[in-house]
């Protein structure tokens, strides 16, 4: 069975003004031969300008969220079609900062996935347990439950990725041990195969949460890890390139 093509995606979160486009250009300029795909997910305000800055390079662009509806009276929100129109080909959905901060449920994330697919975007669907859930021995049940609930049947035959991001590892400098990562990724793989059959074996399962150049090689080479979703360390080209170089 061929391994999924790895994907390293940078999630800039609510960081980045026009001056930060230089970092994106530096990422593109510093990419050598990468055995996988590289994407940057800037704030929505920068997607179009980053598209222009990265035209002709191998770096793909993604949004960080989208509304489930196509358009309408939803002040402040962005639709999947708007992201695609601005130049995105991917979109992060169900990030724990949205699940926790905006009450996003698995059902809402699944509806956003459907919207993303109809706009031609490749969803990166995030799942992950809190520290309390891990301590209670619930990590696998929580994560596989989120996978089942957040990935609609409409994904069959479509390109998408799942990102395992333990909430307690995001922005904290803490990371799970390699066996802990592998245990969860294997459980996600089994759930994907249960849901999507043989196609489920080809979906990249990214790890996210305090990935940095110094831990990237170990994480990226762990069993069933098909790339990384990188927050803080994607803001500086040198750090992001260091992670990509560990692929
Ligand atoms: P971090 O964030 O790399 O800053 O921990 C990861 C994420 O939230 O995607």
Question: What features would you describe in this structure?
Answer:
The longest helix has 19 residues. Helix 5 packs across helix 7 and helix 7 runs parallel beside helix 8. An eight-stranded parallel β-barrel has the order 1-2-3-4-5-6-7-8, surrounded by eight helices. The chain has one domain: TIM Barrel (Alpha-Beta Barrel), CATH 3.20.20.70. Helix 9 links the parallel strand 7 and strand 8. The model has no long low-confidence stretch (mean pLDDT 97). The relative contact order is 0.16. The radius of gyration is 17 Å and the shape is globular. It has 247 residues and is an alpha/beta fold. 40% of the residues lie in helices and 15% in strands. The structure holds 2-phosphoglycolic acid (PGA).
Spell out the key features of this protein.
alpha/beta; TIM Barrel; 247 residues; binds 2-phosphoglycolic acid; 10 helices; globular; 8-stranded parallel β-barrel
């Amino acid at each position: 069975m061929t391994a999924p093509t790895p994907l390293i995606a940078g999630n800039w979160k609510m960081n980045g003004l026009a001056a930060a486009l230089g970092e994106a250009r530096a990422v593109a300029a510093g990419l050598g031969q990468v055995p996988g795909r590289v994407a940057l997910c800037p704030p929505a305000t920068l997607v179009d300008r980053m598209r222009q800055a990265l035209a002709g390079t191998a770096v793909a662009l993604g949004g960080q969220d989208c509304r489930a509806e196509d358009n309408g009276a939803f002040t402040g929100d962005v639709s999947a079609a708007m992201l695609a129109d601005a130049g995105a080909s991917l979109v992060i959905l169900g990030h724990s900062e949205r699940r926790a901060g905006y009450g996003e449920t698995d059902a809402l994330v699944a509806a956003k996935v459907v919207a993303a697919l109809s706009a031609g975007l490749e969803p990166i669907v995030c799942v992950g347990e809190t520290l309390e859930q891990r301590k209670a021995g619930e990590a696998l049940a929580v994560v596989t439950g989120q996978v089942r609930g957040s990935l609609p049947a409409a994904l069959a035959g479509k390109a998408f990725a799942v990102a395992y991001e333990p909430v307690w590892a995001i922005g904290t400098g803490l990371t799970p041990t390699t066996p802990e990562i592998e245990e969860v990724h294997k459980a996600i793989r089994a759930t994907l195969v249960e849901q999507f059959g043989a196609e489920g074996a080809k979906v990249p399962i990214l790890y996210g949460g305090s990935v940095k150049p110094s831990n990237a090689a170990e994480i990226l080479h762990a069993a069933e890890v098909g790339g990384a979703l990188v927050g803080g360390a994607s803001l500086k080209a040198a750090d992001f390139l260091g992670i990509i170089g560990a692929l």
